[in-house]
Structure formats: C-alpha cells, structure tokens
C-alpha cells in the first residue's frame, strides 16, 4: 500500500481537477461565455485570444456572427471560455502522465488499472471533440447534456481506481445497496433534466437581453417541475441512505458527507428559485450535484 501512496495522491488530485473543470464549465454557462471563443481549437483564429478589439484579426466579423450574446467582442467572455479550455488541456496532460505511470506500475500485476487510465485519456479526448461540436452547433442542448455526462464519467474513473487499490472488506447491506443504486439513477435523471432546464434559462435570458431575472423562472416549462420532483426524491433517498449508513462504522463519514451535500444542493436550488437565479448559485449548484453523484457512486463501490 505504501508503494501506491504517491500514485493514489496523484489520482485523487486528478479527481479534484475534474471537479474544477466542471465548476469552470458552470461559470462559462452562467456568464453566457460559451461562445466567447466562437471557433475551436483556436479563438478568433488565434492560439492566444485578444484582450481588446484592436487585436482582432481582419476577418473577425465572421467569428462574431456566430455569437448569440451581443455580436461584439467581449474580452471577459472570451477569456472565461479560453481559461476553461486551458484547464481541459492541463487535464489532458495530467491524464497522459497518469496513463504512463499506470502502464509502468500496473500493466503486469493489475492491467485493468492501466486500461482504466487509458479510457480516462480516450474519454477526455472525446470530451474535447464534443466541446468543439458544442461550439460549432452554438451550444446545442443534446451535446451539452452529453458533455455533462462525460464529465461525470471522467470523475468516476479515478474513484474506481482508488477503490481497487484500497480494496478491503465490503459492507454487506442489501437494503442500503439498492437505495444507493436508486439514488444514483434518480440523480442522473435529475442532472439530465437539469441540463434541459439550463438550456431553457439560456433561451429565456437571451430573449430578455440577460435582464429581468425575476421573470426567468416563471417562463420555464414542465421540465422545471420535473427537476424539482426528482430533487425531492433524491433528497429523500439520501436521508434514508444516511440513516442506514450509521450502523456501519466504515460508511458513517460517507453517509454524513452525502446528507450534507444533498442539503447544500437543495439550499442552492431554493436560492435560485427564490432570489431570481443569482449568478454565483448556478455553477455551485452544478458542482455540488456532480460531487453528490460521485459520492453516491463511491459509496456504492463500498457495498458488496
């Protein structure tokens, strides 16, 4: 186990970095910066984007015409999106290092870990390609949903690796196992529905010139009600999961973390619904929902 300590720390660091990218993606969406770089992999045809309009290329208008924000150069939007891309690039480098390390350390004794690391790299590459499609199709909702689901898959891989290397006696509790499985399914549905609700918010806010925040919630369709219903079911399941985890010393901390996270997610959801969707709450809501999903997934791996 000691010989794996450095590898485990690096794997956990990558997991945290994935959550950082999820947060960055939430900030991009909240600030309407998704088309801040209207081409990919370049940004206004350049590897390093401009900081002011005078630095734009002569043919800049063909890029601005793709934007659905204000059709003018906005350095803030451009750099928020560009930083998001840079973080994804750094993740790619970290995963390449992780894959090489996995090959050298585990290819013979535990080859499955190497293949997990390799799939990590493949999914990251596919995620980058999907990011290009999101830009090319001006943030099509189906591709945004797939983008989010792949991000969750990326976060799940290091959790699997960590659990394999920290293999110990699993807890045998069938009722808790099925509750966690059900919570994962409902939460996944809630996240998928949430991406549709987020797309609705984008359309509504754009139609109102990104003002009149108090009118955004009222124009959402039934998917918003369905999102709230699945949120309530998820919360109820997490309460039962917390209660059933208490008798198991190995699971008490995980259960407590899950109940604290789901309550925070609900609090942020109520904040958005009652305080006209403050900008800070939206990426935080997305981040905590992702953390909740991975925490439930981690708990499920602890169960026999």
Compile the SSE list and pairings:
Blueprint: H1 5-30, H2 61-64, H3 75-106, H4 111-136, H5 141-165, H6 174-207, H7 222-245, H8 252-274, H9 281-301
Helix pairs in contact: 1-3, 1-5, 1-9, 3-4, 4-5, 5-6, 5-9, 6-7, 6-9, 7-8, 8-9
Based on DSSP secondary structure assignment, what is the total number of beta strands?
0
- Summed up, the helix count is 9
- Beta-strand percentage range: under 5%
Radius of gyration, Cα only, in angstroms? 21 Å
The profile of the biggest β sheet is: none
Element-by-element helix/strand order: HHHHHHHHH
Low-confidence stretches: none
Q: N- to C-terminal separation?
A: 22 Å
Notes on the structure:
The chain is mostly helical and 304 residues long. The chain is 71% helix and 0% strand. It contains 9 helices and no strands. The longest helix is centred in the middle third of the chain and has 34 residues, at 174-207. The mean pLDDT is 84.
Short description:
With 304 residues, the protein is mainly alpha-helical. The protein is 71% helix and 0% strand. It is built from 9 helices and no strands.
Notable characteristics:
single chain; 304 residues; mainly alpha; 9 helices
């Amino acid at each position: 186990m000691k010989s794996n300590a450095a590898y485990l720390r690096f794997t956990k660091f990558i997991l945290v970095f994935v959550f950082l990218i999820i947060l960055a993606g939430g900030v991009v969406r909240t600030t309407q910066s998704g088309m801040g770089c209207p081409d990919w992999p370049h940004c206004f045809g350049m590897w390093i984007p401009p900081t002011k309009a005078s630095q734009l290329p002569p043919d800049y208008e063909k890029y601005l015409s793709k934007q659905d924000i204000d059709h003018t150069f906005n350095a803030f939007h451009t750099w928020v999106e560009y930083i998001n891309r840079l973080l994804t690039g750094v993740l790619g480098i970290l995963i390449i290092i992780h894959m090489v390390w996995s090959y050298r350390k585990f290819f013979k004794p535990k080859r499955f870990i190497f293949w997990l690391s390799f799939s990590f790299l493949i999914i990251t590459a596919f995620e980058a390609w999907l990011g290009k499609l999101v830009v090319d199709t001006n943030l099509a909702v189906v591709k945004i949903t797939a983008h989010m689901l792949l991000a969750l898959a990326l976060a799940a891989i290091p959790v699997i690796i960590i659990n394999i290397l920290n293999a110990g006696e699993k807890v045998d509790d069938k009722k808790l196992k099925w509750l966690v499985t059900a919570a994962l399914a409902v939460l996944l549905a809630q996240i998928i529905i949430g991406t549709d609700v987020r797309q609705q918010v984008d359309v509504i806010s754009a139609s109102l010139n990104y003002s009149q925040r108090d009118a955004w919630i009222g124009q959402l369709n039934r998917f918003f009600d369905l999102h709230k219903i699945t949120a309530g079911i998820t919360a109820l399941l997490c309460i039962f999961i917390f209660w059933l985890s208490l008798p198991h010393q190995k699971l008490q901390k995980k259960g407590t973390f899950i109940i604290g996270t789901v309550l925070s997610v609900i609090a942020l959801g109520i904040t958005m619904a009652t305080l006209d969707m403050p900008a800070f709450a939206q990426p935080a809501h997305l981040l905590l929902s992702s953390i909740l999903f991975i925490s439930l997934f981690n708990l499920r791996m602890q169960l026999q």
